Amino acid sequence: MSKKETAPKPRKIIPRKTPVPEQDARERSRNFDEVVLGYTAELARKEAQRCLSCKERPCMKGCPVSVPIPQFISAIKKGEFSEAVRVIKTSNLLPAVCGRVCPQEDQCEKLCTLARKFEPVAIGRLERFAADYDAENGSDGLPPMEPASGRKVAVVGSGPAGLACAYDLARRGHKLVVFEALHEPGGVLFYGIPRFRLPKKVVRREIEGLKKMGVEIVTNAVIGKLFTLGELMEDFDACFIATGAGLPRFMGIEGENLNGVYSANEFLTRTNLMRAYNFPQYDTPITVGRKVLVVGGGNVAMDSARTALRLGAGEVTLIYRRSEALLPARKEEVHHAKEEGVRFELCVNPVRIIGEKGWVKALECVRMEICEPDESGRGRPVPLKGSEFIVPADTVIIAIGTGANPLLTRSAEDLVLNRRGYIMAEEETGRTTLPGVYAGGDIVTGSATVISAMGAGRRAAAAIHEYLLKQK
Question: Looking at beta carbons, which pairs linking 281-286 to residues 24 or more positions away fall under 8 Å?
Answer without folding.
Answer: 286/311
